[in-house]
Amino acid sequence: MNDFQKIKNLKLEHLKHALADLGSVAVAFSGGVDSAFLLKTAHDVLGSRAAAVTVHAAVFPDRELDEAADFCKRYGIRQITRLIDPFKIEGFAANPKNRCYLCKRQLMQGVLAAAWEQKLAYAAEGSNTDDTGDYRPGEQAVKELGILSPLREAGLSKAEIRELSRQMGLPTWDKQSYACLASRFVYGEQITPEKLAMVDRAEQLLLDLGFHQMRVRMHGQMARIEVLPQEFGRLLLNEEVRRQVTERLLAYGFTYVTMDLIGYRTGSMNEGIGKSLA
Predict the structure, then answer these.
(1) pLDDT, tens only, 101-153
(2) I need a labelling partner for 126 at 20 to 30 A (CA). Which of 20, 80, 205, 254 fits?
(3) Distance from C-alpha of 267 to C-alpha of 278, rounded to nearest angstrom
């Protein structure tokens, strides 16, 4: 066993001990890599005293909700669902720079409410040590509400979580990173259900075409597509793919279709925003 594996195993043991000490926990479960790993580990340690809480909202695609439900069924994990309308959150639709805080607070309050109803002692979410560099106003809501972040406390990075998930046989180990659809819009631009649906359909098309990690950012009525640099050729040089993407996105309501030459990266809508705004 190499040193890297030993460190990962030590962190995993730290996580398991921390979860055991909680006694019971509700895990905010989106179906993504991090929350899936946290939920499965909590279930392994606590059994029925660990439950998933999945929020249904317009900012999450149906595919993510379906995959979260399938994951819980596969491993026999109790899942609680909460329905939240983000457009009832004051200020959300105007998309201010603290939009993520406004939304995250409402979503996490739903997780807390589910924990209380189910008599679970704590609520936890899946942030890891990599979730500290970008502008993340949602973290403030997590801290204010007393939601735990066990993966971060255990010192686990995204790469370590993926590798441990692979060793555990979790189907999510190589799943693409994901963020809510509201993160696709320029701050200050009005968010509507129709715009969310346009972005959702555009990203689903790219997934169906085999692009693994991507985003479709919306600037007015323009789509700015981000894909991994190694996939630039498929989008630019494959005439059939380029034609299909362009025609379908125009049909969805976009006026212009462009590709970002930097490529996929997390938080590109936050570029230029100082951390002092958090």
Answers:
(1) 999 999 999 999 999 999 999 999 999 998 875 567 888 999 999 999 999 99
(2) 205
(3) 14
Indicate the pTM of the whole model.
0.91
Q: How many CB atoms lie within 10 A of CB 165?
A: 21
State residue 50 phi and psi, 5-degree precision.
Answer: -120, 135
Q: For 233-276, how does the pLDDT look when each residue is reduced to its tens digit (9 = 90+)?
A: 999 999 999 999 999 999 999 999 999 999 998 777 777 555 43
Instruction: Write down the residue that tokens 């993407």 correspond to.
Output: 245
Query: Contact at 8 Å (CB) between 137 and 98?
Result: yes
Cβ atoms 68, 54 nearer than 8 A: yes
Can you tell me the distance from the alpha carbon of 62 to that of 59, in angstroms, rounded to the nearest whole number? 10
Residue whose token pair is 């580990």: 41
Nearest to 111 by CA among 122, 102, 101: 122
- The whole-angstrom separation of Cα 255 and Cα 220 is 9
**What are the distances in angstroms from CA 75 to CA 33, 64, 151, 170?**
15, 17, 20, 10
